[in-house]
Amino acid sequence: MKKFYLLIGISTLLIISSCKKNDPITDPTGPPIPSTPYVPDNSFKIVSYFPSYRDPASVADSKFKMITHLFYAFLNPNTDGSLAALAQPGRFTTVMQKAKANGVKTGISISGTKSIFVTMAASATARNLFIKNVLTFAKTNNLDGVDMDWEYPSTSDGSADNYVLLMKELSDSLHKYHKFLSAAITPGVYAGSIRDGLKPEVFPVVDFFNIMVYDGIGWDKNEPVQHASYNMAVASLNYWLSTRGMPKEKAVLGIPAYGKNASNTAKAYRDFVAAGADVSLDNALIDGVQFYFNGTITTKKKAKLAKDIANGIMFWEFYHDDNGDKSIIRAANDELGRNYN
């Protein structure tokens, strides 16, 4: 009889152990797991990023009412799945508090060198630790979600499949606590292993994709020095939505709040405003150098494009925009008919 009960006990332990292996990673500390199922937010999004090297005081408080999501950039992983210390934690706290006070959803953007992501994602142990640490960070800081900025998984180095595994596992764990997962991705206008590195298996598990449609000098033959033309935005959305089958509700069109010259040197949009440039246009002569950017008219056109065929817009980055009435984020809100007062 003792042997029978012993066998029953061992079998029970094995069943429990097997079930745990398939469960999303959870943390016993912090808030409890919600009892209701996770429901994704498919409303139109206005996303921006706040880099750690910016002073929160340099962005007007009123600007927070013009966005729906704000990501602090960046939290950096290590190859073993641990996380580096957050840069400027005081700024992180201040910016997140301002965002929350204005009803903005908050998140942390995770970035780092490609080699770190490739190594970390290739190890089940490192992925497990990474996901546990990211979940703990999001829960501890009461964030609404997490943004993955891996630039870029690729088919040429074998990391594309591991990216799928990482995002599936991270999504399972975040969604269990009703936290979203987004990803910053390539514009997809250049053929090759990088755009092929984002496999369609990722589409169902990520809540939305911030498509970085900028830094494309030379792509548009009609505007060769313009790094983020309207035509490039059209081509990017057509590729991801039509060619690749990304669901419309998950596509967020990236718009730069900065310009570039022919030498690929960048300058913030606010600098063009400060220099007295006509920012309804897409170019300005600053100190004898011609810069190309997205002015208010093009920004409105892109906002309308995103409203018509996608589900959001994203700006890199929050500080770059002007704080006054010539703000391109304000222009986008006006085009969308969105109240920000």
Describe the structure.
With 341 residues, the protein is of the alpha/beta class. It has a single domain, classed as Glycosidases (TIM Barrel). The protein is 36% helix and 18% strand. It has ten helices and twelve strands. The strands form three sheets. An eight-stranded parallel beta barrel has the order 1-2-3-4-5-6-7-12, surrounded by four helices. Strand 8 and strand 9 (266-268) form a beta hairpin. Helix 4 (124-140) runs parallel beside helix 5 (159-176), helix 7 (230-243) runs parallel beside helix 9 and helix 9 crosses helix 10 (328-336). The protein is globular and about 55 Å long. 41% of the residues are buried. Mean pLDDT is 93; it is low at 1-23.
